[in-house]
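**User:** Once you have settled down, spend some time on the protein underneath, comparing sequence with structure tokens, and judge whether sequence predicts the tokens.
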Amino acid sequence: MIKENQQVLNRFYVICDAFLIIFSFQIAWLIRFEIFPPQDAMWWPMRHYMQFLIFLVPIYLIVYYFSSVYSPMRQMRFRNEIGNFIRANVIAITSFPLLLYLLKEGDISRSFMAIFFFTNIFFGVTFRFYLRKILYFFRKKGYNQKHMLLVGYSAVMEQYIKRILANPGWGYTIYGILDDHTPIGTRFMGIEVIGKTDELPDLLGTHKFDEIAVTLKLSDYDNLEKIVAVCEKNGTHTQFVPDYHNVIPTTAHTEDVEGLPVINIRNVPLASPFNRMVKRLIDLIGGIVMLIVFAIPMLITAIAVKVSSPGPLIFKQVRVGLHNKEFNMYKFRSMRVEDPKKEKKEWTTKGDPRVTKVGRFIRKTSIDELPQVFNVLKGDMSLVGPRPERPYFVEKFQEEIPRYNIKHQVRPGITGWAQVNGYRGDTSIKKRIEYDIYYIEHWTVGFDFKILFLTFFKGFVNKNAY
């Protein structure tokens, strides 16, 4: 029954998308030629533009299909669903100029095409947002449920059940668990062990399950081939939830190597040359903007530092950056000058006598960090990333904290996910690393802008800076 429901829903999606493309096309024409009509040129009437929809609507729907826009969305995050939709629109809109070329049409407004692009995304995203809300509501009420059977009692099974039960809007009902080593009747969060794995063929013959989730322990993987063969013979959609999260404590990433699935132990989006290029471009543009915006505050700070105590204006300190390479990080000097050999191998603490009066203020407000914009322009640092540490602390922490050196797989930043969450200065280094690793594994351009936004509104004042 659920398969028929999914087919009906997919047809509904296609019909609505076709309607929204036509509607967005008309709205775009009205915006461009009725609300903001060109003053120095003639333009074609709406009926002339509408003829392109004969070709454009099928092209869009085909691109949507091959871009996984119509794949089942129950467990997919909304941002990932919208990401697929926006990427599909980017691909589809590029077909418009080609279509005009093939039809030998040259007098089509480029601004109209841009308005149509954004209008269609707006209406498409809005439609998906509210449809998802409606489907979640009905699934919570018990409608449109997928009935599941779990095969294997393991730690990953427990995590899987927790997620299913925490998201009733996904619409999953778990029938029970099969396992060879756990007593029948054992329950986890209300889900009961109902038999052994050799009972799977009989259960599949008497029940119409929509999905089977294989959640075996690593020690039971010798039984995996037989279980998968039974599921495949029955034709039931099967998920395999690997029990490696205790062995590989990270977010793994699977890729296809000419038909061979390969699990990367860690997904690092910035390992992609394209992503690195995009981030570097943002750093360069952002660095130049920062220089312009903060030119006067930096000048005033420079004068105050110079007047407050003798010594250099800029304090240079060796830090460890990308690929464990050392570099000189710049700050406005906030302490009295002392012999580098006597420099403390510890963080500044409350009441530290080395800190000047001006230094205390610029450290609290993070103004002392502004010269790091030059590190960004040089390529030593990024606007956003894990904060760099001194070599002494790196050697110390990499022995004490597992996965510490993962932070060196990306450029360090002026600000970061740990910092906007309150982990700055004399705070838990373990929690800071947890936030850094989360950032590294979940990096997106949007995530960077979110951190920059949070930095401006709550990240400058540092209560842990002394």
